[in-house]
Design brief:
Elements (H helix, E strand, L loop, with lengths): L1 H20 L1 H6 L1 H28 L3 H14 L6 H14 L24 H13 L3 H14 L5 H21 L3 H14 L4 H17 L6 H14 L6 H18 L3 H14 L3 H16 L14 E2 L9 E8 L4 E7 L3 E7 L1 E6 L6 E5 L7 E4 L5 E5 L6 E6 L5 E7 L5 E7 L6 E5 L1 E5 L5 E4 L4 E4 L8 E2 L7 E5 L5 E6 L6 E6 L4 E3 L7 E6 L5 E6 L5 E7 L6 E7 L11 E3 L1
Antiparallel strand pairs: 1-4, 2-3, 2-25, 3-4, 5-6, 6-7, 7-8, 9-10, 10-11, 11-12, 13-14, 14-15, 15-16, 17-18, 18-19, 19-20, 21-22, 22-23, 23-24
Helix pairs in contact: 1-3, 1-7, 3-4, 3-9, 4-5, 6-7, 7-8, 8-9, 9-10, 10-11, 11-12, 12-13, 13-14
Length: 571
């Protein structure tokens, strides 16, 4: 803690030096002083809020209360402070251990630059510092110059100051000093408009800080915000590791309360992000506890409507799709028939109708069990493929409904296309690849790592390549077996395309958002797909020849594994 307070003192001294340089600006230009003063105050409040969050994580609730009261005295509306204070008081009352009192460090204002300094000499000094890329020095000297003579070579001085603020801000962001980087870029924006790339860096840093401010206090909120950032920029700083650790820590806290089933979900979601023998052990322990727990009804799917609906332009049939149940954080399979919406099963993925609509097959969670489930000829539910030899995804029926094709995650990190009897039995490997979908004429479309291949499993090995994009993933066949709807990031974001069996490619969506999981309607007129073009996820319909899409079903804000979603449209 002492080191943290000393670090805060150093930051305060730094911002104090900026404030000192701007002191003369108050006498010669009040605007500059007001800006610098406000930024200094914000830096101090932000630093104390961050330390309060650290105190909460370390269970130093009394100290967190002092810091938060100190913040609210200066800014009663500081974001998150009042809510965090409420939590700190509640936890402090439940925790008898006293904590020491530390008063937040105040800003030390240094001696102002001499008012009679020569502007020419200051500019020359700033240019020398600029050439040496000493951005902090440039900022201090130029702000002093503006304070002495606000009209002195205004364009040149402000441009140089702007560039120094941007450069120092980006350096802070690259070094992980996110709050200082945000503040520098915001100050730069006062003088000139920062570029879109710099603004994007600044906003990612703000998203990251916003997520971790609730660390250890509100796991649901922390995970939700980290998931949003992880989807937008999975390589940003340690966001993937952060999200993994948040799921694990939340799972640990649930296990401590013997809430085994919710803990199982958190560990499972963590393992979706990265593998860990330790977490796999925790997941197995939670799974055992969940199996032995007293059964309780699954919570209602809040925010997802069940019951009668009216869907304009729905051409008929039954559309099976995946949606996250926000109450328990796992995917559900639901069916829309144009007149009503209903839940089929919970904790399942990748639904696929039998060609005649008389059965449905889908996969279990690839971490929790990895099996494939479906309906037997008598209508009963059976396990078609166990998950003992690897997680199995993307099952689909053969044209006559007697077999299924699916993708299996194999030992060594490979993925293969496998085939098994639809009523259960031994499976065999067809080829290496991902995302298989069996079509009405007997061909299986799948991604072999270099594009989409069409392969008839009954006429010997090998198939015909129809696309060459490594990330082209097939999802649905047209009813006549002449086209395959697929997704690809070929133009920078994920869009829906179709390719003919002769290799003709047509792009069906072209929006600056992500589209996925296309599914052809039984009559061939329409293709359903998911998209986040409205901010939240939803299902849209578009004509199979293209055109303007229309929105039919809201899926909510959370869809963390949307690239692995699949929909199926049966009769």
């Amino acid at each position: 803690m002492y080191a943290a307070i000393m670090a805060f003192s150093a930051i305060c001294v730094f911002f104090g030096s900026i404030g000192g340089a701007a002191f003369l600006g108050y006498r010669h230009g009040e605007r500059d002083w007001q800006i610098s003063s406000a930024l200094t105050q914000e830096a101090m409040l932000s630093e104390q809020y961050g330390l309060a969050v650290q105190d909460m994580n370390a269970e130093r609730y009394e100290l967190a209360i002092e810091r938060l009261n100190w913040i609210l005295e200066r800014d009663p509306f500081y974001p998150g402070a009042a809510e965090l204070l409420t939590d700190a008081i509640r936890l402090a009352n439940a925790t008898p251990t006293p904590t020491p009192t530390i008063t937040p460090t105040v800003i030390v204002t240094p001696t102002p630059v001499q008012a009679n300094a020569d502007p020419d000499e200051l500019l020359a000094q700033a240019e020398e510092l600029y050439a040496a890329e000493n951005w902090l020095g440039v900022i201090e000297v130029l702000e002093a110059l503006i304070g002495i003579d606000p009209a002195y070579q205004t364009d040149h001085v402000e441009q140089m100051l702007f560039e120094a603020l941007v450069a120092q801000g980006r350096a802070y962001l690259a070094g992980g000093e996110l709050e200082a980087g945000i503040q520098m870029i915001d100050r730069a924006n006062i003088y000139r408009q920062v570029g879109a790339d710099v603004l994007a860096e600044r906003n990612l840093a703000e998203q990251y800080l916003d997520a971790i401010r609730t660390w250890g206090v509100d796991w649901d909120r922390t995970i939700e915000r980290l998931e949003e950032l992880y989807q937008a920029a999975p390589g940003y700083l340690d966001v993937g590791t952060r999200l993994f650790n948040a799921h694990v820590a939340y799972g640990d806290s649930l296990m401590a309360r013997t809430d085994y089933c919710p803990a199982l979900q958190q560990y499972t979601q963590a393992l979706h992000i990265m593998g860990s023998d330790e977490v796999e052990g925790k997941r197995a322990q939670a799974a055992e506890g969940c199996r032995n727990a007293t059964p309780t009804p699954i919570p209602s799917v809040s925010g997802i409507y069940e019951g009668p609906v009216s869907v304009p332009g729905f051409p008929g049939g039954r559309l099976a799709y995946e949606v996250v149940n926000p109450d328990i954080g796992v995917y559900c399979i639901m069916v829309l028939d144009g007149a009503s919406v209903s839940i089929v099963d919970t904790g399942r993925l990748n639904p696929s109708w039998r060609r005649d609509g008389g059965g449905i097959v889908y996969s279990g969670d690839p971490i929790a069990d990895g099996a494939i489930y479906g309906t037997a000829p008598d209508g009963s539910w059976i396990t078609i493929v166990s998950g003992e030899e690897g997680a199995n995804l993307f099952p689909s029926y053969s044209p006559d409904g007697t077999r299924i094709a699916f993708a299996r995650r194999e030992a060594g990190g490979t993925t293969g296309i496998w085939i098994a009897p639809a009523n259960g039995g031994a499976a065999y490997r067809l080829a290496g690849g991902k995302s298989p979908i069996w079509g009405p004429t007997g061909f299986i479309a799948y991604n072999d790592g270099s594009g989409i291949v069409l392969d008839n499993p009954d006429d010997g090995p090998g198939g015909a390549r129809v696309t060459t994009g490594p990330e082209d993933f097939p999802h649905s066949w047209s009813p006549d077996g002449q086209w395959v709807a697929f997704t690809s990031p070929a133009d920078g974001d994920w869009d829906v395309y179709k390719v003919s069996i002769a290799g003709e490619i047509v792009q069906l969506t072209n929006f600056p958002y992500n589209e996925g999981a296309p599914a052809w309607s039984p009559d061939g007129s329409t293709i359903a797909f998911i998209s986040n073009q409205s901010g939240d996820w939803a299902i849209y319909l578009v004509g199979s020849e293209g055109g303007d899409p229309w929105r039919i079903v809201d899926l909510g804000a959370r869809n963390p594994y949307w690239p692995n979603n699949r929909m199926s449209w049966g009769p």
